[in-house]
Amino acid sequence: MTLPLPPGFLWGAATSAFQTEGSLAVDGRGESVWDVFARRPGAIEGGADGSVACGSYRRWPEDLALLTELGLGAYRFSVAWSRVMPAGTGRVEPRGLDHYERVVDALLARGIVPVLTLNHWDMPQALMADGGWAGRGSVAAFAEYTRAVADRLADRVEWWITQNEPWVVALLGYQLGLHAPGVADLRASLAAGHHLLLAHAAGAQVLHGFPRTRVGAALNLLPCVPATDSPADAAAARGSDGYCNRWYLDPLLRGGYPADMRAHWERAVGDLDVVHDGDEAAIAGCTDFLGVNYYTRRVVAAAEPGPGRPFPWRVVGPAGDLTRTDDGTEVHPGAFGDLLVRLARDYPGTPLLVTENGGAFGETPTHDGRVHDTRRIDQIRSHVAAMAAAVAAGADVQGYLYWSLLDNLEWAMGYRPRYGLTYVDYPTGRRTIKDSGRYYAELVRTGDLPEPPAVAPFG
Ligand code: IFM
After folding, report:
1. Half-sphere exposure of 31 (CA within 13 A, CB side)
2. CB under 8 Å to 90, separation ≥6 — which residues?
3. Which CATH number fits the domain that encloses residue 222?
4. How far is residue 385 from each of residues 9, 65, 101, 190, 206, measured CA to CA in Å?
5. Which three-class secondary structure state does DSSP give residue 391?
6. Domain that holds residue 128
7. Which of 22, 267, 298, 415 has its CA 20 to 30 A from that of 351?
8. How many domains are there within the chain?
């Protein structure tokens, strides 16, 4: 029996520029916030940086050959803003655009649909002079950058993602200072989140000036489950959902920020004057599809706000002996399926594209040269099954893009976590398709869920 997915369903894989490209000082690229953040002692595990990564700026033809070998029909990649506009605004660097044009043309020649992300976290450092995403000037800057990329590529690229995971940027980059640009300020994080959404709207306006473009934002959605049956924990889970999910979903797809979460923010930081009259109207109604990045769920309990806890809840789990990835993240396909059904119910009429799903499973090559990553095979199988069940239940899911095509730089965790369908030997850059990659290829080829292969432990 084949999976009940719509015709033209996009099966693919995803990467981002800073996590894979390397070649940071090539072809006129400017510095990004991640270049600078990586130089802070202790910012990235192992003192790692993005200078080499997977070497994809040079080795991109190999990456595209991998997509073909896997039989994938779509590739999500990101354009590095600082390659196109080294100073964030103003002068356009044609060598940067030439590079991405070559990639897009080569994808199309291979029959692979490009899904282009404009901001996967690597804002040009020069824009930090105005506060980065915490400054309102970021919105016009993003529109200018979008225009430069669209002028070159919007005649060939149909699927555009303006922002990747705005909540994560606001939380880790501006609230906790654990990601670039390393700011730890609650008000700045509120401002950053809002400007990321406004910039999505400004970018969408530019892109909609070109025929055939479809514009979405990719949100990292985290189903929030109450720790107990108590009304207090139920309220906490609802609040947490407001904070990570609805604060982004509702303005994009429902016309404005949710009132309950607005009240939480006002209690925490005072007046929300960063949101100007007309902003919510600008953000509403410009999103053609929702990008869904799903990794796990969170279990939430009621808690008094206090130092380091601006809102009345805390994440307490999931706890116990569960299936987990290498970094302890719970693997929970059921929550993925439920999320897709919930999105279809609560935000009807918006097609969904799974723009990321995956996990850190660090298997390395064994004596036979292969990577027997059975845990990732289970993860793919269970999540695709959950997605198919959600589609059967009415969710309009148009594609599934696995994170990631390649092992790559996992931000502040450096190169330790491995998310790829393809193993990357970092000292040489050599790529080896893992058993999970072969499994995914078979799934895509057959449109069904193959039985996991029996692994012969000794080759
Ligand atoms: O590697 C990241 C990606 O850049 C954004 N989404 C989550 C992935 C895994 O943590």
Report:
1. 14
2. none
3. 3.20.20.80
4. 15, 27, 35, 36, 37
5. helix
6. 10-446
7. 298
8. 1
In the chain the first and final C-alpha atoms are separated, in Å, by 31
In the 8-state DSSP scheme, what is residue 171?
I
CB 293 near ligand 1, within 6 Å: yes
Tell me the CA–centroid distance for residue 236 and ligand 1, in Å.
Answer: 26
Q: Is residue 79 part of a domain?
A: yes
Residues serving a catalytic function are 165, 356
CA trace torsion 246, 247, 251, 256 (10° rounding): 100
C-alpha separations of 261 from 14, 238, 269, 279, 445 in Å: 31, 9, 12, 17, 44
Compute the distance from residue 147 Cα to the ligand 1 centre, in Å: 26
Q: Which residues lie across from 352 on neighbouring strands?
A: 290, 397
User: pTM for the whole thing?
Assistant: 0.98
Q: Is residue 1 included in any domain, yes or no?
A: no
Alpha helix segments (H runs only) across 242-304: 247-253, 259-269, 279-283
Residues 329-358 pLDDT 10s? 999 999 999 999 999 999 999 999 999 999
pLDDT at 456 exceeding the cut of 60: no
The response to whether residue 122 sits with its C-beta less than 6 Å from ligand 1 reads no
* Residue 204: count of CB within 10 angstroms of its CB: 26
H or E element at residue 225 = strand 224-226
Which ligand 1 atom sits nearest the alpha carbon of residue 408?
A: 1
- Residues 6 or more apart in contact with residue 154 via CB below 8 angstroms: 160, 207, 210, 213
The CB of 16 under 6 Å from ligand 1? The reply is yes
345 found inside a domain: yes
Short-list 125, 26, 4, 124, CA closest to 447: 4
Residue with tokens 């506060």: 131
Closest-CA residue, ligand 1 atom 10, reads 410
For residue range 24-46, list pLDDT tens digits in order. Answer: 999 999 999 999 999 999 999 99
Dig out the tokens for 64 from the structure: 């595209």
Indicate if ligand 1 lies below 6 Å from the C-beta of 163: no
Mean of the pLDDT values across residues 44-68? 98
Report the candidate in 392, 354, 369, 250 with the shortest Cα–Cα distance to residue 10: 354
Whether residue 4 lies inside any domain: the answer is: no
Q: How far is the CA of 410 from the centre of ligand 1 (A)?
A: 7
Q: What is the DSSP letter of 288?
A: S
Question: Could you give the count of Cα atoms lying within 13 Å of 414 in the half-sphere of its Cβ?
Answer: 11
Q: Is 410 in the pocket of ligand 1 (CB under 6 A)?
A: yes
Average pLDDT over residues 92-112: 99
Q: Report the atom number in ligand 1 closest to the C-alpha of 356.
A: 6
Strand partners, 219: 292
- Separation of CA 361 and ligand 1 centre (Å): 14
